[in-house]
Amino acid sequence: MKKQLIRNFSIIAHIDHGKSTLADRLIDITLGSSVRGDSDQLLDTMDLEKERGITIKAQAIRLNYKSKENIDYQLNLIDTPGHVDFSYEVSRALAACEGALLLVDGTQGIQAQTLANIYLALDQGVHIIPVINKIDSKLANPQAVSSEIQNTFGFKEEEILFVSAKTGEGVEELLEVIVNDIPSPKGESNDSLQALIFDSKYDSFKGVLAYVRVVNGEIRVGSKLNLMGTSKDCDVLETGIFTPHLIKKDILSTGEVGYIATGLKNVRDCRVGDTLTSSQNPAMNSLSGYETLKSMVFSGLYPVDGEQYPNLRDALGKLQLNDASLIFEPETSGALGFGFRCGFLGLLHMDIVQERLEREYNIELIGTAPTVKYNVELTDKSSIEVDNPSKWPENQKINQVFEPWIKLSIISPSEYIGPITELVTSNRGEFINTEWIQSNTLGSQLSGSRVLMEFDIPLSEILVDFHGKLKSCSKGYASMDYTQIAPRPSDLVKLQILINEQKVDSLSVITHRTKSVYMARDLVKQLKELIPRQMFDIPLQGGIGGKIIARETIKALRKNVTAKCYGGDITRKRKLLAKQSEGKKRMKKVGRVEVPQEAFMSILKSEKQD
Predict the structure, then answer these.
(1) Percent of the chain, pLDDT > 90?
(2) C-alpha dist (Å) from residue 365 to 261, 306, 503
């Protein structure tokens, strides 16, 4: 097809604003509802995606649309993940498009990720079509949301479309706007090949499948290609398009979206954002925007049953085949046995991986407290990266510690400014700015104005239960988004937990010095409730270096050894009690305290106090 009749576009939205539902309505109108079969949502294929109502893995599909002017168009819809953890994948999907539908929920208005995604779209220079969804809902106030979009982003009233992805109302008019307003692809088929990889997956028969947008040149079966970012060579074993099933095609031309079977065995060799070019006639430059994904959150995963360690290793390897951002390496804990230290893009990514391991591979897991990666400058001027409390150097060897920080954006009704500010500042956050989004009423559920609040805050402070507390203090109305900024020096220490005078590395945590005492007291109190009593006293201690800053004692179970003494001299009883005391001392030296699984979750549930 001529490139003038091709339209490549994405849908960007906050979570649960109806992105996948709108994609299904577009598919129903262009390809027919029979394509979806029994599936409620075609592009969300994983059970987790359907249950949570979020898009985890990007998808693409080619739509054939005949306009009102009787012209046949080729529409390539590149679906994008909706969560901040996958913002890089969203940016690469947008880079493969000339247009984007900015979808806003008519009952909720602009949310934090709405702002983040539109900034990504503006950075890529794509044409944005604002769309207000869920106009069929009784709670919707489309005119108020329209006013909000105009005031915030500068769109004109006539540019904003109103649709109901659920009923299909207004979707055909949206298709007309897509073919009329979104520009056709640029690029020349005679130039050297440049193809952007916006996603990849592993196929056990064809090797790594690269999902590509051809920017210049064309791709033919049998040609040899080079990945400019990783310097890997591959052969084009097969090319094709998405309908959404893979359909073979001999050539992918300029402007088209499709897949390439590369034959590569490792998805890490075919990274998202990389540029494919011809080995015989390579392009001079790669396409801009390529980055190497870096893990932001780290956690230890251990099987509850030690015999499942080989199964966990195999399961992580299989997940990594389709998820190059997942990294893992073996580690050992005295309390938990053999496991793996895993790196994730964020909290949602971590949660998804753990749930998939438990569901798809039937492995019961214990996860240690999530941490971030710290850059530790030592006294000898060398630097090390620490993502595990067990690797934390001794205090006397540390010169300075740099902690990752983020810029946190929160959108909320104005009446919750106080509680939200208090929540963020109590977690070492710094207030930066407040912007008023609107001054009129939005629906029956949001009264008054809404504000965009910006804070700088350490990444580690939002890892544990921060989102839940934010929803609690705003009655569920606040939404958040974050971007990483430059790390800052911080006074951090390693809080070590000792049970029966034995260090338990799996319960260690890196925290700010000002919070260490409160966290230590809270942890030992919770452990006192969780660890069963033994026949000897069990001291629970929290310490920094060689200094103990908190202590609780689990009192011993006591047998009444004097019960058989009905009379006689008191020395008989004293002798029995002394004998019992000596026995308890020996027992304490050789006794081992079994720490239940709940103890390892206590860190996640601990209340962080000032």
Answers:
(1) 31
(2) 35, 10, 22
State how far the Cα of 337 lies from the Cα of 65, in Å rounded to an integer. 58
The terminus-to-terminus CA distance of the chain in angstroms comes to 64
Q: Phi and psi (nearest 5°) for 119?
A: -65, -40
Report if pTM > 0.85: no
- Matching CATH number, 397-490, of 3.30.70.240, 2.10.25.10, 2.60.40.1930, 2.40.50.1020: 3.30.70.240
> Hey, where are the domains in the chain?
3-181, 194-278, 297-367, 397-490, 494-605
Backbone angles phi, psi at 228, to 5 degrees: -70, -25
- Dig out the tokens for 104 from the structure: 């806003």
Helix (H) or strand (E) holding 589: helix 570-590
Q: What are phi and psi of 551, to 5 degrees?
A: -150, 140
Residue-wise pLDDT tens digits, 403-434: 999 999 998 888 899 999 999 999 999 999 99
Phi, psi (deg, nearest 5) at residue 307: -70, -15
**Using CA atoms, how far apart are residues 272 and 368, in angstroms rounded to an integer?**
29
Contact (CB, 8 A) for 185 and 98: yes
pLDDT digits (tens, 9 = 90+) for 448-503: 578 899 999 999 998 877 888 998 998 888 888 888 899 999 999 999 988 888 88
Assign a CATH topology to domain 494-605: Alpha-Beta Plaits (3.30.70)
Q: How many CB atoms lie within 10 A of CB 355?
A: 15
CB distance 198 to 213 below 8 Å:
yes
Buried b (16+ CB within 10 A) or exposed e, 174-193: bbeebbeebebbeeeeeeeb
Count of Cβ atoms closer than 10 Å to residue 263 Cβ: 13
Contact between 104 and 133 under an 8 Å Cβ cutoff? The reply is: yes
558-592: b or e for each residue (b if 16 or more CB lie within 10 Å)?
Answer: eeeeeeeeeeeeeeeeeebeeebeeebeeebeeee
Cα 138 → chain centroid: 32
- Single out the residue of 78, 76, 25, 85 nearest to residue 54, CA to CA: 85
Domain at 3-181, CATH homologous superfamily: P-loop containing nucleotide triphosphate hydrolases (3.40.50.300)
**The CATH number of the domain covering residues in 297-367:** 3.30.70.870
